[in-house]
């Protein structure tokens, strides 16, 4: 039958970006003896019905599906509701239930557990239990397709076994389907064309991206919102003695254009890694605490949701393609004022390339051909 997944895609297909508010089944009119219908099976992330599995069928008995699309203006959510990235408000009970009720998957991210026995991925994402052992990698590291027997179920005797290491698990995953790149909302694996200078980011595409302003009015560095009042950035971007100067901008795409949705926060606190080395860039990381605007009120910047923190150092390996976003410079060293994103490839031979500049805990990404640069910035997300 019709689920919220299909309902969201139907509404997006009709031009309602936030998806569906509700779906129901109604009785057909009495004079409609037989109807030719289209049965769609969607995952919920598609933008057009043509991307779903479609099958024609003739309805002789039963009910018709009715979908109500979300067309209301953005409003504040009450205490019993969850605010989706796209602005929809859904009941809190619908979060982490394996269903894409928001239409943008934001209600299934950063989950500590999943409701109704749905599957909990190691990356803290909930997926429907029906997605387990269906020969498709839905979890970031593919654990939903491990320990499956031929009929598509997890073997009971193996369901609780712990793999020897993530590397062993990864070897098994590589024999399955290609892993879909992570980090971009509502992107499909077909968008692979590389453009020098990067892609221009769309609204709500990187809802965790923040800008850090130092002295003056330009973007000093980028940062990542991780929840509460906290932002993570590079230690080389900030100085503790200038705590009172820095400002955090949330919800910003164009640093030169006024947008009423942009929020500005001053800083309450700054924590720079105690072993940060400004010469070698070892431990180049810092935490910034935004100051609440009203005493006792938590930080809740609009159009901003926290990024899910990687749960293991083994999540990403050399050769995988990732996406970075930020403000910075193009290939001609021209400053960019609009948020952009680009593809980078993780490299697994960093110590050979960077010699004495590569230290434990660092990662490197890019292309072996040094001239082949797509997008670069002082600090990426």
Automatic annotation (TrEMBL):
In the record, biological process GO terms are: proteolysis
Keywords tagged on the record: Disulfide bond, Glycoprotein, Hydrolase, Protease, Serine protease
Name a GO CC annotation attached to this entry: membrane
Q: GO molecular function: any one? A: serine-type endopeptidase activity
Query: Cystine bridges: which residues?
Result: 42-52, 77-89, 84-102, 96-111, 114-126, 121-139, 133-148
Domain SRCR, which positions? 1-70
So which domain of life are we looking at? Eukaryota
Keyword Protease tagged: yes
Entry keyword annotation includes Oxidoreductase: no
All copies of the Peptidase S1 domain together span: 195-381
The record's similarity note reads:
Belongs to the peptidase S1 family. Snake venom subfamily.
What name has this protein been given in UniProt?
Peptidase S1 domain-containing protein
